[in-house]
Design goal:
The chain is of the alpha/beta class. It has a single domain, classed as Rossmann fold, CATH 3.40.50.1010. It has a 5-stranded parallel beta sheet.
């Protein structure tokens, strides 16, 4: 099974897996974990702000994602087209592009954010 990760789930899975929900931990151990360029983008935009998940996103990405050779999805035209059709259920642009990528790829999203289920995608936590 292949899964896409919300940014918090990606960071927690690679650094503090005990922060994940039980189902998410189980899936992360057996599934093909996929990151998105949107994860790195979000980490960069939010770095240096209160509550940032990581302090140096580029170094973190190279250390935890690139070295582990995790599959990484680019943001493609099909994703943006899916994004344009999404209703305004959720305002966070990073979550919205991840939802669009899940729709384009036909894969579930590992996320703690239950509101994202309202888009009709499968979520795991």
């Amino acid at each position: 099974m292949r899964v896409l990760t919300d940014t918090h789930a990606l960071v927690w899975a690679l650094q503090v897996p005990e922060m994940l929900g039980a189902e998410a931990r189980k899936i992360m151990d057996t599934a093909e974990l996929t990151a998105s360029v949107a994860n790195l983008w979000e980490l960069c935009i939010k770095s240096g702000k209160k509550g940032a998940l990581v302090n140096d996103p580029v170094v973190w990405w190279h250390t935890y994602v690139a070295r582990a050779e995790l599959a990484t999805l680019p943001i493609r035209l099909a994703d943006v087209l899916s994004l344009s059709a999404l209703p305004e259920i959720h305002k966070d642009p990073f979550d919205r592009i991840l939802v669009a990528q899940c729709i384009s790829e036909g894969i579930p999203l590992v996320t703690k954010d239950e509101r994202l289920r309202l888009y009709g995608i499968q979520t795991i936590w």
